[in-house]
Design a protein that fits this description.
The protein is of the alpha+beta class. Helices cover 62% and strands 8% of the residues.
Length: 865
């Protein structure tokens, strides 16, 4: 009788218990799934820029602190292209659009346009501060002097007006923070109409938003802005309120602590902006809409669409493959039910934990459906081939033959996925954690449900393989190929080494990309609109620099203002073929404007004394200028510099933070504190992490998988050799990508982990079976390889092709990198299958031959002595 190892005994006892108590096993799994499924009520989609980093990430902390102090820097931009911008008729239309946006867009904080932006000029020898729209004439065109002034001034050029005067912007800024009370009031008012299902959906969304609000209250130790009765920051009040200004604990106790505006409310905000803008489209008034909130919403829409499509297609591939293989309805339903329940449990767990579905984790359901069914395929195939008539003995044989490798392959998958958890990018790290959890829960469900459902479904054995389509001729193809490679192992191993070397130049040519706008198809309206706006304004993406003097009124010195001017000039000088700087703005632009009006001098002059600077700032504020609150804090200790750039790949922004920090130290000394943040900076961090996450996760995967292979195979040389057919497919794919110029992006980071997790399954099954025959039967290597190929060759081909076809469904995604990822991943898995059939037999043969020669030499030496 064969001695079982501890893992075999554990899986065997679990499987036999489920086979003997099928309804109890099903009940346990169902109850566990039901508990997890409660979390589905809080599962949400979040494809926003804020979802890229964890709340404890320093970059995210700085970004949120900036928004709490100065408000949102990402807004919806409505661009109007017209040849009549400086006419009275256009201003009438612009005012109407501006007022509609202010009045009818929910969750709006403010709207800025030519109609209400501050304009400073002189009247009767004094400084006059007014709304720019008030200077437009009731009839005719704007005076030429004012028009030229607007086109030259840094306050308006490429911030609200294009250099040619043909495009103007409306900046529609959503609220950054809201109160739970405001969310409840909005939900209640939204239920006045609609059917019962709409009311139910609104209630669920409102409940979820309240839950997010309560969870978000845990961040109360950070500064928060003052709130208006509507739940948003009060424009007239400073937005740098601290813990001393607001009793946060009392707010939390009453459930009214302010939280970030939920994504569902941003959707309402964006929809209202688009709807109102559409009403104003007419001849000679071309309108384009872009901005951070719109891009985030478009990604979430793509996730919603692709998630159902790819999950459905993957499920269809699995069902068709199982039907072709087993030709049994019950045989198809068993593995589908197993992976379906494990998928529900995993998604529910995401809801419990608070992990959202992101652009990365949308791939999780198809991956779980595909990879989860592999264990069932191996175990079902073994069960169906067994000629044993007794059911319990057949189950025992099934676990004895493949229970061990199934467990170890899943554990290897878990380690491969856990390697992603070290990524700084939150979507990648969360994907790794939940994929590992899903693999483990899928393993438990397989070990419990499969024997139970086999008992209840009364699926019969098929030792002649009559019901397993293609099994015979697949085995007849795989076995001769594998044996040929076994007999010519030297040539195969030499070709493998040459192939590795051939890919090295391609690896060195790998390019990296992180451009969320090019995730959309070229004809996507958002991509077209963003490019159209950038063609005129070059200001789609902001980089924010905050200089903190740490002294009251520390920025109100002529020297500091001159330093700000120099910093902005330096920023403008950084433009190159990859990076286009559209505009730079800070408080110094407003001070220069007031000084110019007072003195009649050039626009570059600044007040020469501290007293004059105070007086001119007082004139600017006293005239009702509202922009000041977004340029500095109320203590005048900080200055904000905004650098607006044309949209580009995030790699163009890498290094800008270091350049600006160095320049700030050069201009202001080491005593000031510099914070660089904004969308451009966050994307540059993401671009760097794509590179770091890829190589660090691959290295960690290699170490973890090598360790697991040693545990499974219990022979160092075989374990080391098994790494080759696992990593070589990824190496080949990356090399080909380098040769073809295909970039590595956030999705391609997953390529290695997923390909390793799938290919290692085949390798473990092959190597484990070879070693089992060698150890238990003492046969020669050729006999062990032949028997192994006959036993697992066809199942390996079937499982690999099913997986490759299922992952190919990613190619139907509307997100371009995910579509490309599907094609490359499925190709990588086909390569992995070929290498398992060709290289694995050669590797085990080569090691066996070396071991035999070593033993022969040892024996000869022993005899001679």
């Amino acid at each position: 009788m064969t001695t079982l190892n501890p893992m075999q005994r554990l899986t065997l006892h679990l499987g036999l218990w489920a086979a003997r108590h099928p309804w109890l096993a099903i009940g346990v799994v169902t109850l566990l799934t039901a508990i997890f499924c409660v979390g589905l009520g809080t599962l949400r989609v979040d494809a926003s820029n804020n979802a890229m980093f964890g709340h404890n990430d320093n970059a995210q902390i700085d970004y949120e602190a900036f928004q709490k102090e100065f408000g949102r820097e990402d807004a919806v931009v409505v661009a109007i292209r017209s040849p009549r911008i400086f006419t009275s008729e256009f201003m009438v239309r612009l005012r109407a659009l501006h007022e509609q946006l202010e009045a009818k867009v929910p969750w709006v904080e403010e709207v800025t346009s030519l109609a209400n932006v501050t304009y400073v000029d002189s009247a009767d020898g004094t400084v006059r501060t007014s709304k720019l729209g008030d200077r437009w004439p009731d009839q005719g065109a704007l005076p030429e002097a004012i028009r030229n002034d607007l086109l030259k001034s840094s306050l308006y050029r490429r911030t609200l007006l294009s250099p040619d005067g043909g495009t103007t912007l409306l900046i529609v800024r959503p609220q950054t923070f809201v109160t739970p009370a405001a969310l409840e009031a909005a939900a209640a008012s939204g239920q006045s109409g609609g059917n019962a299902l709409q009311h139910l959906g609104q209630s669920i969304r409102a409940w979820h938003d309240r839950l997010d609000a309560n969870l978000g209250a845990g961040a109360a130790a950070k500064p928060v802005p003052a709130l208006s009765a509507k739940g948003g920051p009060t424009p007239a009040q400073p937005t740098d309120a601290t813990v001393e200004d607001i009793d946060l604990r009392s707010l939390q106790a009453t459930g009214s602590a302010p939280v970030r505006l939920p994504g569902s409310k941003l959707v309402e905000f964006n929809d209202a902006v688009r709807r109102i803008a559409d009403e104003f489209r007419q001849e000679e008034m071309e309108i384009h809409i872009s901005g951070g909130p719109v891009i985030d919403e478009a990604h979430e829409t793509s996730v919603h669409q692709d998630l159902g499509l790819m999950t459905g297609l993957s499920l269809a591939v699995v069902v068709v493959a199982l039907m072709l293989q087993l030709r049994s309805t019950v045989g198809v339903l068993v593995p589908v039910l197993v992976v379906g329940m494990s998928l529900l449990a995993t998604l529910g767990a995401m809801g419990w934990i608070g992990f959202p579905i992101t652009v990365v984790s949308q791939a999780l359901p198809p991956i779980m459906l595909t990879m989860g069914v592999l264990s069932s395929i191996h175990m079902l195939t073994t069960y169906l081939q067994d000629p044993e008539p007794d059911f319990e003995q057949a189950v025992r044989n099934m676990f004895h033959h493949c229970g061990d490798p199934v467990v170890y392959t899943v554990l290897t998958d878990v380690l491969a996925f856990l390697a992603f958890s070290i990524a700084r990018l939150e979507p990648i790290a969360e994907f790794g954690l939940m994929a590992a959890f899903g693999s483990m829960i899928g393993l438990v469900y397989t070990l419990l449900l499969l024997p139970a459902l086999l008992r209840i479904g009364r699926i019969k054995h098929d030792p002649t393989h009559k019901n397993i389509v293609f099994f015979g001729w697949l085995s007849n193809i795989v076995t001769p190929v594998g044996l040929y490679c076994h007999r010519h192992y030297r040539a195969v191993l030499l070709a493998t080494v040459l192939l590795i070397g051939l890919m090295i130049p391609g690896i060195w040519r790998i390019q990296y990309a992180h451009d969320v706008l090019t995730w959309f198809q070229p004809e996507h309206v958002l991509r077209r609109d963003t490019m159209a706006i950038d063609a005129q304004m070059q200001s789609s993406i902001p980089l924010e620099i905050v200089i903190d003097t740490r002294k009251d009124e520390g920025i109100l010195t002529p020297e500091f203002m001159l330093g700000l001017r120099s910093l902005q000039d330096y920023a403008a000088s950084l433009s190159n073929e990859h990076l286009q700087i559209g505009s730079t703005n800070s408080i110094v632009d407003s001070i220069q404007r007031v000084h110019q009006v007072l003195t009649g001098g050039s626009g570059d002059a600044l007040p020469g004394t501290r007293e004059l600077l105070h007086q001119e700032l007082l004139l600017f504020e006293g005239g009702g200028a509202k922009e000041i609150k977004r340029l500095t804090d109320r203590r005048y200790s900080k200055a904000r510099v905004t650098v607006r750039m044309a949209w580009a790949d995030a790699h163009a922004f890498i290094g800008l933070d270091d350049k600006f920090r160095t320049k700030v130290v050069e201009l202001f000394g080491k005593d000031v504190r510099t914070t660089v943040t904004g969308v451009a900076y966050m994307q540059s961090i993401g671009a760097l992490d794509v590179i770091d996450s890829m190589w660090s996760s691959y290295l960690l995967s290699a170490l973890l998988i090598a360790g697991m292979l040693f545990v499974v195979l219990r022979e160092f040389k075989i374990s080391l050799a098994s790494i080759v057919p696992n990593f070589l497919p990824v190496w080949i794919s990356l090399g080909v990508m380098g040769y073809l110029g295909l970039p590595v992006d956030m999705f391609m980071v997953l390529l290695g982990g997923i390909a390793l997790a799938v290919s290692v399954d085949d390798t473990v099954h092959f190597m484990h079976t070879v070693m089992r025959h060698r150890r238990t039967e003492g046969v020669e290597i050729e006999a062990a390889v032949r028997t192994t190929l006959k036993e697992v060759g066809a199942p390996l081909v079937i499982a690999s092709m099913v997986t490759a076809c299922a992952f190919f469904t990613f190619s139907f995604s509307s997100i371009i990198p995910l579509s490309r990822f599907g094609v490359i991943l499925s190709s990588t898995l086909v390569i992995a299958l070929l290498l398992d059939v060709v290289v694995s037999p050669a590797l085990v043969t080569g090691i066996a031959r070396l071991e035999a020669r070593r033993m022969d030499k040892f024996n000869k030496t022993k005899v001679a002595s």
